Amino acid sequence: VHDTQNVLSFSSLQRTGHLATMSLLQPDHFQHILRIMNTNIEGSQKVMYALTRIRGIGRRFCNLACKKADIDMNKRAGELTAEEIDRLMDVIQKPLEYKIPVWFLNRQKDYRDGRDSQLVANTLDNSFREDIERLKKIRAHRGLRHYWGVRVRGQHTKTSGRHGRTVGVSKKK
Predict the structure, then answer these.
(1) What is the 3-state secondary structure (H, E, C) of the chain?
(2) In this structure, are residues 127 and 59 in contact, taking their beta carbons and an 8 Å threshold?
(3) Phi, psi (5° rounding) for residue 88?
(4) Which of 5, 38, 51, 98 is the most exposed place for a label (fewest CB within 10 A)?
(5) pLDDT for position 99
(6) pLDDT tens column, 117-159
(7) Could you tell me which residues are beta bridge partners of residue 41?
(8) What is the spatial distance between Cα 57 and Cα 116, in angstroms, rounded to a whole number?
């Protein structure tokens, strides 16, 4: 036998206003999707893992950038304030000013200007395309392999990696 006075229904909680205190609280400034460096970032993920959606930023670089920008690693990406996002983007765009070592960067000794930098998003794609075009133009071995559409890094190609090309003996009818 249930005691009807002690049983709380959903509608009674809603009427009295106690329902809001029982739900999980989200900050007022929570964003479900952030737009950073032309990339959509999910706000429900932790900062370190959410920022890895940006091309050119991995887990270790993001970890270091968050530490340099003094951002709590347990925060969700949607909880970041505009000031914290600006600090983080500043660290990502100018890593050498924040004493991130050169060996940590993804573009060391650029062939044009000799500088070390961290390429992210569109600049990464552009420089990658320019590098391949330069190799094709100077007729380097790697450039020719890219041009022919075959494996570039020394893999065996006799039996593996045919992906759609039929190679072999055809049957006679």
Answers:
(1) CCCCCCCCCHHHHHHHCCHHHHCCCCCCCCCCEEEECCEEEECCCEHHHHHHHCCCCCHHHHHHHHHHCCCCCCCEHHHCCHHHHHHHHHHHHCHHHHCCCHHHCCECCCCCCCCCECCCHHHHHHHHHHHHHHHHHCCCHHHHHHHHCCCCCCCCCCCCCCCCCCCCCCCCC
(2) no
(3) -65, -45
(4) 5
(5) 93
(6) 999 989 989 999 999 999 999 999 999 999 999 999 999 988 8
(7) 34
(8) 15
Residue type, position 164, single letter:
G
Closest CA to 93 of 123, 73, 63, 52: 123
Tokens at residue 60, please? 């270790």
- Tokens of residue 164, six digits: 């759609």
Say if CB 136 and CB 146 are below 8 A apart.
Answer: yes
Comparing 2-16, 57-71, 101-115, which segment has the lowest mean pLDDT? 2-16
Q: Long-range contact list for 90-93, CB < 8 A, 24+ apart?
A: 91/65, 92/57, 92/61, 92/65, 92/118, 92/120, 93/118, 93/120
Q: Tokens at residue 38, please?
A: 């032309």
CA distances from 147 to 140, 141, 154 (A): 10, 10, 15
